[in-house]
Amino acid sequence: MLKKPNALAILALISSSATLCAVGELNVTFSGARVLTSSVADTIVFTFDNQNLLSWSTSEQNRWLNETANSTGIGTFSNVSFHGADVYGGAGGTGNYITEATLTLDAPASYFGLWWSAGNGGNVLDFYLSDTLVASFTSNILNSLGAEYYGNPILGEFYQQNMAEPYAFINFYGANGFAFDKIVSSGGGFENDNWTIRNPAYGSALYSSTESPTILPGTYVASLTSDPNSTTVNPNIISAPQLAQAPDVPEASSISYAIMAGLVLAGAMYRRRNSKLV
Fold it and tell me: What's the pLDDT tens digit per position in 133-147?
């Protein structure tokens, strides 16, 4: 059963310059503290890890990444900025992470997740469909994270450093026809990793035996529709008993609606087999 938030919550959403412009729904959750990857099945994952990557030229780096991406048929990367693991990013404390990047998909997708590390003002994550901006998020989406999400969570050299900034795996679930075919991360110091994509929507017919479109993995942030007055919260998702059953999610914390988003009609979807890319 869906429940409308109070008037103040709706006002916070609208005041954050949300523009909801067409049919569709986008649900946003974050995974448990110290969780670095998605729990969604049959995804394609880009870890951006190659031990020689940082010694290559920019053109060599992008060629390697696109050879990897093209082998899956998922799409093409451009404008990628790579960095070696440090206190600000690098899931697992090793390998590489990225700051700015664009991924243009070969076909529209309905699920995206990433490890958003060291979140700070100026971080922007945009979703497009047919070159039209359909959703845009800033680091305000991290405002509801509890104290357990602050500081680098990776055991080792960087553990619990940079305690002023949050680290979390964020999930974006399209529903009721919402999809996107381009993802752009930008803005100063937008450290992120483990880009995760799936074309069929969560809980769609292909996954009806194992997934429910009304009970999403993770701590619920908001559900955005084409009508801002229809913005809803699903108590089945944010209730502590439901979250306690999920292996990678802690009990629910406070909910933030101060995010930016816009939605348009989705295109076709298709299934991809799970593939983790090195």
Answer: 988 888 888 988 999
The reported pTM is 0.77
Q: What is the DSSP letter of 6?
A: P
- 60 in a structural domain: yes
Q: How confident is the model at residue 241 (pLDDT cuts 50, 70, 90)?
A: very low
Stated as kind and residue range, the H or E segment containing 142 is: none
What is each CA distance from 113 to 31, 41, 145, in whole angstroms?
A: 10, 12, 16
Q: What's the one-letter identity of residue 265?
A: L
Find tokens 């055991």 and name the residue.
155
Q: What total number of domains does the chain contain?
A: 1
DSSP character string of 59-86 = HHHHHHHHHHHHHHTSEEEES--EEE-B
The first and second tokens of residue 169, run together, are 């795996």
Give the DSSP H/E element, type plus range, for residue 256: none
197: which strand partners? 44, 112
Q: Identify any residues that bridge with 222 across adjacent strands, giving them in sequence order.
A: 28
DSSP-derived 3-state class of residue 206: helix
Structure tokens at 173: 């679930």
Task: Confirm whether 1 is domain-assigned.
Answer: no
